[in-house]
């Protein structure tokens, strides 16, 4: 079985990935909810957020029932 899906990647570039995320000012109030829903917090935002985000995505995938 093949599963086709997509995910949105965001980052702060701290790990050297070149990623960045700059939401519009009107959307910034949602950030704490978004990072919390991903299981990430301020500690990750100050460090290698890109790596922490990727690890969370991989953990979700590994823990899923997807093929």
SSE topology:
Layout: H1 31-37, H2 42-46, H3 49-62
Your description of this structure?
With 67 residues, the chain is mainly alpha-helical. The chain has three helices and no strands. The longest helix is centred in the last third of the chain and has 14 residues, at 49-62. It is globular and about 40 Å long. It starts with 30 loop residues before the first helix and ends in a 5-residue tail after the last helix. The relative contact order is 0.19. The mean pLDDT is 82.
Secondary-structure-based class equals mainly alpha
N- and C-termini, Cα separation: 6 Å
Give the ordered list of helices and strands: HHH
Specify the overall morphology: globular
Mean pLDDT: 82
Radius of gyration: 13 Å
Strand content: under 5%
Query: What about the largest sheet?
Result: none
* Number of beta-strand segments: 0
**Which segments are poorly predicted (pLDDT under 50) over 5 or more consecutive residues?**
none
- Counting H and I runs of at least 4 residues, what is the number of helices? 3
What would a concise description of this structure say?
This protein is mainly α. The chain contains three helices and no strands.
Structure keywords:
3 helices, 67 residues, mainly alpha
């Amino acid at each position: 079985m093949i599963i086709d899906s997509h995910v949105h990647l965001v980052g702060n570039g701290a790990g050297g990935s070149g990623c960045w995320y700059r939401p519009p000012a009107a959307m910034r109030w949602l950030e704490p909810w978004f990072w919390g829903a991903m299981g990430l917090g301020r500690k990750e935002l100050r460090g290698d957020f890109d790596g922490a985000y990727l690890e969370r995505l991989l953990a979700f995938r590994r823990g899923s029932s997807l093929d």
